[in-house]
Design brief:
24 helices, five-stranded mixed sheet, manganese, single chain, metal-binding, NAD_DNA_ligase_OB, five-stranded antiparallel sheet, D-amino Acid Aminotransferase, Chain A, domain 1, Helix Hairpins, binds 2-(butylsulfanyl)adenosine
Length: 665
Amino acid sequence: MNNVKEKILEIKQKLNEWGYAYYVLDDPVVDDAEYDKLFNELVKLEQEHPDLITYDSPTKRVGGIVLDKFEKYQHKVPMLSLANAFNEKDLKNFDDQIFKEIENKNYSFFVEPKIDGLSISLIYSKGKLFKAVTRGDGVFGEDVTNNVKTIKSIPLVIENKDDYVEIRGEVFLSKKEFEKINQQRQLDEEPLFANPRNAAAGTIRQLDSNIAASRNLDAYLYYYMDREKIKTHSESLNYLKNLKFKINELGKICKNIDEVMQHINYISEQRNKLNYEIDGVVVKVNNFDLYEKVGYTSKFPKWAIAFKFPAEIKNTRLLNIFATVGRTGKITYNANLEPVQLAGTTVQSATLHNADFIKQRDIRVGSIVKVKKAGDIIPEIIEPIKDETFKLLSVWKETHVCPECNSVLERVEDEVDQYCINSSCRRKVVRLMEHFVSREAMNIEGLSIKIIEKLFENNFIYNVADIYKLKNFKEELISLDKMGKKSVENLLEAIEKSKTNSAEKLFFGLGVRHVGKKTAQLLVTNFKDIKDFDKISFEQLEKVRDVGPIVARSVIDWFENKNNKKLLEDLVSLGVNTSYLGNIGSKYNEIISNKSFVITGTLSNSRNYFKNILEEHGAKVIDSVSKKTDYLLVGEDAGSKLEKANKLGVKIINEQEFLEMLGEK
Ligand code: IVH
């Protein structure tokens, strides 16, 4: 046992070191495969010895916790925001104010990028990350600890073992991660995030920490105040760096406002080259001992100011508006623009979202439009310039037919989007197939969009069921250009293998409107077999956690459609599995599946051990007791959670009763 303990410790140390090099220093020391191999070894050892799982294990960063709501948390010191400066004059005023307050010119500034994310407060107690709280209204924030623990550049354990250490900074998403997320959302036909800040805020406020874990958030820390030991902001950053936090390297001490301005210009020049968004520069007095003298307004410190970059806006001509159709048939309008340089890139197209967006702004083909990059990434048209020539242009009219198949479009009441409802629309089918074979859905490797298009054009496939008939055309496939024998064999093998997927993958792959991966999972866990969905009522669907009327209606509609019925029959007759396999072998699943549990007190094994059992049986394990909690599993010395459960009338079970529920005793 001791040996295993040492082994685990050694692996953890190594992984933490490698993680630090990769996530904080941005200077990897091993390749991904080597990291993953050791990580998996640790997962295995921890599974065999759950009692040896420790707080700072890198395996703790993978999410897994789903909350009902975020608890409120009162900041010890309010989290203030900053006053803005837009030009040199504003900066001079800021400096004059400081000078007046302290009557002495002997101070310097620290100038650093203003990261475009959301502020976070990290509280460490005795060296362990104890709480991570959003800014909220500045006084009360939300406890988002579970999500923040998934941020790999934030240490779970630090060298400072004081009872209370508070560090503040900014959580953000890199430009690359943001693009990746939006690309996936486009495929899933989910609304796009306007900019990395919205995406980061949306992620940190997810109750399901698996989502945060999948999105690679990052954080720069810039605030630690211990006026006993540390005298300046620049020293505090060095201190944080030594504690292994990620510190922005573009910060610099500046002696006066001229130097401040120079450094602002320097950072501004770097802006487009950075792999994260900044929306300005923060200028702070460097000496902590002047903070109280300089003072505060009710909202802002007077010793710091945010110099905001203006959002770049350019005029260019709108050449054309065209519509595209996505996999659910949703129509999106896009613009072709005369190429224009904007925030570091050449822009020649922009999204116009839906018909209402264009009509509300009276955007016309041929007009000069103002373009900006929303969050400096996605080009967006703000409005047309209504000059003399504008009046001569014709008012834009939406299309009423699909740009691909010419069938009449439908618009669901109360929804802004138009849809192509022709189930054999070429573009729609190709996009749906692309989604069907994707990793999160049926995971059929080797069917790229190019190949799908080729198969479609050569009449091999008309719908997703046809994918499973391809094995009858092996020779023909081989003779299609660029599809060698080996790749055809691999493809057919991958197709066969996908038949045995558990139903949630198939459900997600079918592309039912509003049914994402998580909803598909919830639906099949509850109703077990996709074949039975035509017998399920709207009311039954609505009872499922997280399923609202829109999703329920969409599911009912899909299963009522006769083409879809036929498609499902074909898939079944071709041998594609439609039942949920997640809980095979667990006959006790019914009792606890979909129930929410809170675990408290000391049990005979680690909490993680019980959590794993519960999750394997389809239950949800949450952190805090609320009215919605179904069961509190209590061990010895339970405290406030037990009290709260008693008060709220939550069912309380001990370990013995729990095992009985499982049927194990
Ligand atoms: S200092 C009391 N430094 O900007 C002052 N803030 O508009 C604490 N921000 O709420 C803030 N980068 O979320 C500071 N280098 C930086 C920053 C920064 C981004 C954010 C922060 C703050 C907001 C104010």
